[in-house]
Design a protein that fits this description.
- With about 110 residues, this protein is mostly helical.
- The protein folds into two domains: about 30 residues, no CATH class; about 60 residues, no CATH class.
- About 65% of the residues lie in helices and about 0% in strands.
Length: about 110
């Protein structure tokens, strides 16, 4: 049997999209002004999105309203869940990671729950 040499999570993948030359030039100028490379900028944005950074999620939620790919009820439910997470974090002074760890611990201790 041949070994699968692909290492999930370790292999590089390209993320590519196309935009106008004007917007590309404006982006490059803005990034240079802010002292960032395109790589730094896009990796930071993706990291913020994947780690559910509230600042990025606020922007994405506004974007979803404009693009309207989701129904109003689904958008409202998403906002409620985000608000509940913020409320829980304030109430118990737990970060999202700490809350996940706590739920994992409960699931381990009480598997029938």
């Amino acid at each position: 049997m041949s070994e699968n040499k692909y290492k999930y999570g370790k292999e590089g993948k390209k993320i590519v999209f196309q935009d106008s030359d004007k917007r590309h030039a404006d982006l490059r100028i803005r990034l240079r002004y802010d002292g960032l490379t395109q790589l730094q900028f896009f990796r930071a944005m993706v990291t913020g999105y994947l780690s559910r950074d509230p600042r990025i999620l606020d922007y994405v939620n506004d974007l979803k309203d404009v693009v309207a790919k989701q129904g109003k009820k689904k958008l409202e439910k998403s906002r409620e869940l985000v608000a509940l997470g913020k409320e829980t974090e304030k109430l118990f002074n737990l970060s999202e990671k700490e809350a996940e760890d706590l739920f994992d611990l409960i699931a381990k201790e009480l598997p029938d729950l």
